[in-house]
Amino acid sequence: MISMLPGLETLHRLTRLRVQWRAGSGAAPVGSRRGPRPGSSREFLGLRPYEVGDDVRDLDWAATLRFDRPYLRLYRQEVESSLLLVIDASASMAYGEPAKLDYAVGLACALGHIALAHSDRVGALAFNESVVASLPVGRGAGHWRAMRDAVGNLTARGAARFADVPTWLARLRGFHGLAVILSDFYPPEAFAEGLRRLARFPLRAVALQVLSPQELDPTLDGELELADCETGEMRGGWIGPAQRAAYGAALTSLNAQLEGMCREAGIRYVRTSTGVPVVRCLQDTLVRAGVLCRERS
Amino acid sequence: MSLTNPWGLLALLGIPVILYWHRRTASDRRLVPLIALWRPGAAQAPSGARRRRIDAILLLRLAMVAAVALALAQPSWPVPANVQHVFLVDASASMGAREAGGLRFARAIEAAQDVLDHLPARAEVMIIRGGMPPTVVHGFSRDRSALRAALGAMRAGEAPKNLSAGLLLARRDADGVRGLIHVFSDVPDPKAVARQAERLGVSEGNLSVHLVGGPAENLGIVRLEAAPLSQSPLDYAVVAVVGNYTRETRTAAVSLNLPRGVQERRRISLAPGERKPVPFTVPAVPWVEVRLEDNADALPLDDRASLVLPIAPLRVLYASRSDRFLDAAIRAHPRVEIQRIPPERLSQEHCASVGADVAVVDGTPPPPGCRVPVLAFAAARPGGSAHAVPIVEWQRGHPLLRELDLGEVLVPADAVLSAGGGALIRSADGPVARAALVEGVRRVELAFPADRSNIGQTPVFPVLVARALEWLADRNASALNLTVGQPLRVSVPPAWRGDLTVTRPDGSIVRVAAENGFLDFPATDMAGLYIVEGPGVTLPVAVRLVDPDESNLDRPASPPEASLSLNAAAADRADVSRPVLAAGLILLSLETWLLQRRMRGARR
Predict the structure, then answer these.
(1) Are B28 and A222 an interchain contact pair (Cβ–Cβ within 8 Å)?
(2) Chain B residue with the nearest C-alpha to that of A252
(3) What is the ipTM of this complex?
């Protein structure tokens, strides 16, 4: 049972959205989508000078005669893209009401449903210190049920080891398309290397940071002993307005650091709160972030 | 405040355990997703605020442990010093038992004086002697010396135990909820007294039973009764039941004393706990006395008992045209006074005015509404058959017909009683005799006149008539055989309106006056024979103690510890363990609620 997953009627209404595929690289299976690289479709992309080994059938004779050197016609490649949903199941994702993990799972399943409804391929991966759930890339209604079964019973525990995620993603056999990483990205250092490695892969990645209202605006007060839910590290002392203000500043700084890391890796950074309903996040936050777009009627 | 069970305070050892456990669990520990974001300021906490942050859950848990420990210790709270105390000292016959330490009653007085010494100075005390009837010996007073003197002047009585009356009197005078009734008694079961008190509206908290008495061995006469002999209605069978309340087989002599001296003496042997009937046959004498002899036991009072036999002359109103067999049968009774009238004069007014015990009517129906028991022989039917039929059935177990043989009796063939219950004798044609209640008055009816049957010529007839007269008169001596303390009330002839005298067993003579045809004499507090004397007549009255509960003196060597301690605590203190326990439960609920709230907060 996925607590944060919208109802079937709402999911059906959400199919008016579709995944916005854009930018990408590398060879991919030919499909119904326009690939970002030159390919064999009949949609003209441009011209480039002939190089040895090119197919002479693609010579543009008009351009060759005009510029007195051989030019080749380039066509847009039709590829089939995959949506890869990466869910952080580390202990820190259990925090908040609702838990960040529940929210991330609900959001991932809804995204998967949207993609599958448009015949896109979807794969999923949940991780903490290792892979805790994975679903190879596939399509169809049965695949969505398999995805729900795969990620529906996740439990948040352990630390996040994101550095190995690109390697694990490669095993899903959908190593292209769009990868949406749903995590709180705590601590950012644990994600830095993985994000850099991910940038080298032929994927468009989106880092969707999920935070809870309780950590965005904490109400802790008084003499407390704080314990890190992942590392177990403890800090005791007095929490008052000054400490809460310092926490806010540290969180802002951390988010800025994460955004900078994503920018350097060419990854789109999006932040949402579990206080925002999943449907609104899909229709508003992710549309504005360019992850989803509304289908033209 | 005092503690009935101080060992219960050992539960306070749970407090250090709670503190240790609380320190370990650190209920104010909060999980955060990233500790690096927090910089708690240890030095910034104001000391006042730290003090205010005393953990409420810890306080609740400590208070809860303290409440449970206190409840286990059974604390009692002193009631206001001016509470009223009623001392009800049981003065029944068993309290006069001799024990190793003296009389049982003396021990009760000592216990009462001990309680009196420990009462607060402002406490008011009333003393009731729990006899039959109970009497207030001293009203509410704070004068300890007067109260002590009143206690010392009390003596045990000879009446059976009747604590209910004493409790009723105490409850009436005690001050409602704040009054405390102390019962000093040798009752075998103090809970029985508590139940009695509860029925009378005295709650357990207002009652304190102080048990006295230990083991005591006793033989006693626990029952004494007389009944006419079936073979000879004018003689009596006297049965005395002797009980052995010792722990070994005992032998004793039982003697029967008549007014003229000792009649008979028998030796009996009784096993422990056994009750054995000892029958005697006595002639018609005014009274008998049965004594246990050669018996040294704890209570001499129940070693003798008197019994008055119903032998007063029977007043018979005889309305007949003279049947010689019936005349002879009535005159065969040695104690009858016959007033003879013609049948036609018999009327309701005559029945009422003559003061007869029984009326015998032959050949004429009894007057309607007659309030006198009647032995009625029916008139002969005009033109009836001369044919006779035999008796075929009779009730051989009925007091009138026991051991009588009516097989030779013939009755007229047409003499049959109308339908109705109580048939005594049946001929071949139907019921011919009945004994029944008519308008609440006994009546024996025969369906034939005496001279129309051969029953008058048979030997059973005088026996049958004598039994019928006794049965109809329904004379029993219950009004003349009383238990000690039971008021004497006997009807006396109108001629006795003047002063009468009652001679008590100790020889003292009391003058009393009869009123409204009754003699009332309540001072029967001494066992023995009371003699009521009027103009020309002497009436004996037996007052005795025949009560197994009083004769059974065996008590445990030491009274139950629990009841004594409970009662001692209840003497002037109110048990508050239940409210304390209730407070502990409330604290537990609060702690659970607070803990749930915190856990919800911690999850966030």
Answers:
(1) yes
(2) B37
(3) 0.79
